[in-house]
Amino acid sequence: MFGIENYTGFVIAAVILNLTPGADTFYVLTRCVAQGKKAGLVSVAGIMTGCVVHVLFAALGLSVILSTSALAFTLVKCAGAVYLIYLGIKTLTAKSQAFESGEDQYSAKNLLYIYRQGIITNVLNPKVALFFLSFDPSQVTGPLPFLLLGATFLVTGTTWFLILAGMAAVMTRTLRENRRTGVILQKLSGMIFIGFGLKLAFSSK
Q1: In angstroms, what is the C-alpha Rg of the chain?
Q2: pLDDT tens figures, 122-178
Q3: Neighbouring residues of 174: CB distance < 8 A, sequence distance ≥ 6
Q4: Which end of the chain has fewer CB atoms surrounding its CB within 10 Å, N or C?
Q5: CB atoms within 10 A of CB 152
Q6: What would the pLDDT profile of 10-60 be if each residue is shown by its tens digit?
Q7: Residue 33 CB burial class (10 angstroms; 0-12, 13-18, ≥19)
Q8: Furthest-apart CA pair in the chain: how many Å?
Q9: How far apart are the first and last CA of the chain?
Q10: Sign of CA dihedral 176, 178, 179, 181
Q11: 49 contact partners, CB below 8 Å, separation of at least 6
């Protein structure tokens, strides 16, 4: 189909990638736990927008640079690692406890900030780009195969993250109302973000 030799394999791999805990998954969970369902849905939109960027890069052939240039891969990887560590430190040192806030208290400006963070978190993960390139339709030229694979990935990813966001928001509503638990969760979230950043920094292709 459109030169894609193993579409079923791609769908299975996409589902497995979405289900595997990573920075994207944890970002959505953190927002849901901290700020409720609305913030969780906005974070999902940010992550999926980042995926759209990766799809367009793959379709235009720009993602090939990451697979062929060790320097480009390292630069993007380090940028992603630094950003995750930055998010972790910011969460750890925040004076205001986001986990104590109700989801209705967040303005459009705050939601835009959450959305933007989601985009950056995803775009600065070079392994997402390499995932698409691993299913390169070798005998076909043009962007259509990549756009089809990208649309498939977006559907599976969005479905999973929406389910995750809904479940997390419901399950943690009581926790967010408890100050002590909220503080613990916020500090734990910061440390996990830093952990993901360090893992990305020292990972290889």
Answers
A1: 18
A2: 998 887 777 766 655 554 456 677 778 888 889 999 999 999 888 887 777 666 666
A3: none
A4: N
A5: 17
A6: 788 888 888 887 888 888 988 887 777 888 899 999 999 999 998 888 777
A7: buried
A8: 58
A9: 29
A10: negative
A11: 115, 118, 119, 122
Tokens for 31, please give them.
């927002």
Asked whether the beta carbons of 16 and 134 are under 8 A apart, the reply is no
Query: Two tokens at 201?
Result: 């920094």
d(CA 131, CA 122) in angstroms, rounded, equals 13
Structure tokens at 78: 């380090």
Q: Which residue has the tokens 């479940």?
A: 167
| 204 three-class SS | coil
Q: What's the length of the chain?
A: 205
**Token pair for 17:** 């990638």
Whether residue 72 contacts residue 130, with contact meaning beta carbons closer than 8 Å, is answered with no
Main-chain phi, psi angles of 90, to 5 degrees: -65, -40
What are the extents of the domains in the chain? Answer: 7-66+93-185
Extract the tokens encoding 70: 């060790």
Q: Quick one: tokens of 119?
A: 């985009």
